[in-house]
Design the sequence.
């Protein structure tokens, strides 16, 4: 008789990103209080998932279930996120002389951005751990995604967002039944408001990297990049970094896949793209101890990049360093130009954050950081449709 076993999570522990202190996987955790750093999910490789098992599985990020932290599949809260296409940008590549220019289009996820991955995972774990009320500070996309997944899970949701965010981000939260709180300022001001609200009510805080599971959702981009490119990774990946979950997550996926024996050889150089209006990663790379002095972060029309003091800064720096990567910032004018160029040449309306990677690429080539002959992957993290108000 053949016994069919359901795939089960191989998650075994949560550890502090800095010192490795273990935290209980079965408990509702936030971050590693020992070092004020994020918590990271660790997996067992004793009965590893085989890449040969993947064909035929569902076309969502949940196809990697063994390497994800949801223990009981019944707790999965999914709207069909993940397995977004990787498309060639042939026309731009021809005009500008790149041999292999690719884009992963995360704008096709539920709620129009890659935030769907992290919030699907975080809400699934929140459900598994019995949470009934969540809160998040957001630059826009994470709020809409949390609201949608909470609606699907039957969990109450509060979203705290800058008042200058395009209206559609507010409307979607309300339509998904979330409570919306507007704050003058940037996401760090929203985070302060969240701390205030948490004193009044018992919310589970889903802030970037202050709970362990959004990272696990975002890492599936790394698994997909490898699988969709037939296990031949690109030479470099350009990622628009705000809080940095995607940058850190993709790198985590590559390391897990090395342990699984799915990939070998050199890993891609991870390049963080920011806005000149808010570029903490670049400041910190140049001046690790004094970067906050004289820093006046400003809003950017790439709303998701306006994260002045990311909690995951040390982890992002480590990824850039370990991968031999780089960080670069782009002006507001170039970001708008980028959206227009890509839309007109490739038929893709990128989020301004994604378009920043295209303009960054042209600078990186001039600087000799990236070369024409390389395989280059741009991450379009969201749909431009939600930003039309910004694009004028
Ligand atoms: C479209 C888009 N791109 C990039 C980012 C930055 O993402 P991360 O926090 O993973 O760096 C955000 C965050 O809000 C976003 O909405
Ligand atoms: Zn620690």
Sequence:
């Amino acid at each position: 008789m053949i016994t069919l076993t359901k795939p089960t999570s191989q998650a075994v522990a949560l550890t502090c990103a800095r010192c490795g202190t273990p935290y209980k996987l079965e408990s509702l955790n936030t971050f590693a209080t020992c070092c004020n750093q994020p918590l990271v999910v660790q997996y067992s490789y004793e009965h590893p998932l085989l890449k040969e098992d993947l064909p035929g599985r569902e076309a969502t990020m949940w196809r990697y279930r063994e390497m994800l932290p949801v223990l009981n599949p019944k707790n999965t809260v999914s709207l069909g996120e993940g397995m977004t296409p990787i498309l060639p940008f042939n026309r731009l590549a021809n005009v500008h002389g790149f041999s292999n220019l690719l884009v992963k289009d995360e704008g096709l996820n539920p709620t129009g951005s890659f935030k769907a991955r992290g919030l699907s995972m975080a809400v699934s774990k929140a459900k598994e751990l019995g949470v009934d009320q969540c809160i998040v500070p957001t630059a826009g996309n994470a709020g809409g995604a949390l609201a949608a997944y909470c609606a699907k899970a039957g969990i109450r949701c509060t979203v705290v967002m800058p008042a200058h965010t395009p209206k559609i981000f507010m409307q979607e939260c309300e339509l998904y039944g979330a409570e919306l709180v507007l704050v003058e300022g940037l996401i760090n001001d929203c985070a302060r408001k969240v701390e205030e609200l948490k004193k009044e009510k018992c919310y589970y805080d889903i802030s970037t990297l202050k709970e362990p599971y959004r990272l696990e959702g975002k890492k599936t981009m790394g698994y997909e990049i490898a699988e969709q490119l037939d296990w031949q990774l690109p030479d470099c990946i350009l990622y628009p970094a705000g809080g940095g979950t995607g940058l850190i997550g993709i790198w985590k996926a590559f390391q897990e896949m090395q342990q699984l024996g799915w990939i070998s050889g050199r890993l891609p150089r991870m390049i963080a793209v920011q806005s000149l209006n808010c570029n903490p990663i670049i400041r910190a790379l140049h001046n690790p101890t004094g970067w906050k002095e004289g820093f006046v972060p400003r809003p950017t029309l790439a709303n998701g990049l306006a994260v002045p003091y990311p909690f995951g800064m040390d982890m992002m720096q480590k990824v850039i360093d370990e991968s031999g990567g780089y960080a670069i910032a782009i002006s507001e004018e170039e970001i708008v130009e980028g959206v227009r160029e890509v839309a007109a040449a490739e038929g893709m309306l990128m989020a301004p954050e994604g378009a920043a990677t295209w303009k960054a690429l042209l600078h990186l080539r001039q600087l000799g950081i990236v070369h024409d002959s390389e395989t280059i992957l741009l991450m379009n993290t969201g749909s431009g449709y939600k930003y039309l108000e910004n694009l004028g």
The two ends are 65 Å apart (CA to CA).
